[in-house]
Amino acid sequence: MKTIAKLLLATVVPLAAVAAYAPPASAQTVYYYPSAAYVASYEPVYYNGYAHYYYNNAWYYRDHGAWRGYAVEPGYLHGYRGGWAGRRHGWR
């Protein structure tokens, strides 16, 4: 009987302590999407069939009513932001 009680205490107490442990609160990433005024006042860049907007140092587009973005900036949009893709100058 004593060995069963020791075995239970040796396994139940540590498991209960692990289950009761709550990790500290961590910071959550907050995304700020373009406002309606921003979308209305800036010309979009069309890429993959969607109108893209460069806002707050990132590219965003609307997909079925929800805003989407990219974890890694696509090459075309990077080039467009850099000034060489998709732009035509009348003075050249």
Q: Descriptors for this entry?
A:
4-stranded antiparallel beta sheet; 36% helix; alpha+beta; 3 helices; rod-shaped; 92 residues
Radius of gyration: 27 Å
Strand content: 15-25%
Total helical segments:
3
**Major sheet: size, sense and barrel closure?**
4 strands, antiparallel
- Described by the principal axes of the CA atoms, the overall outline is rod-shaped
What's the order of the H and E elements? HHEEEEH
DSSP, total strands: 4
Q: Between the first and last Cα atoms, what is the distance in angstroms?
A: 94 Å
**Uncertain residue segments:** none
Structural class: alpha+beta
Tell me, rounded to a whole number, the average pLDDT.
78
Question: Main sheet: which strands, in order across?
Answer: 1-2-3-4
Share in helix: 25-40%
Per-chain topology:
Blueprint: H1 2-20, H2 36-41, E1 45-47, E2 50-55, E3 58-63, E4 66-69, H3 75-82
Antiparallel strand pairs: 1-2, 2-3, 3-4
What can you see in these coordinates?
- This protein is of the alpha+beta class and 92 residues long.
- The chain has a domain at 27-82.
- Helices cover 36% and strands 21% of the residues.
- The chain has a four-stranded antiparallel beta sheet, with helices on one face.
- The mean pLDDT is 78.
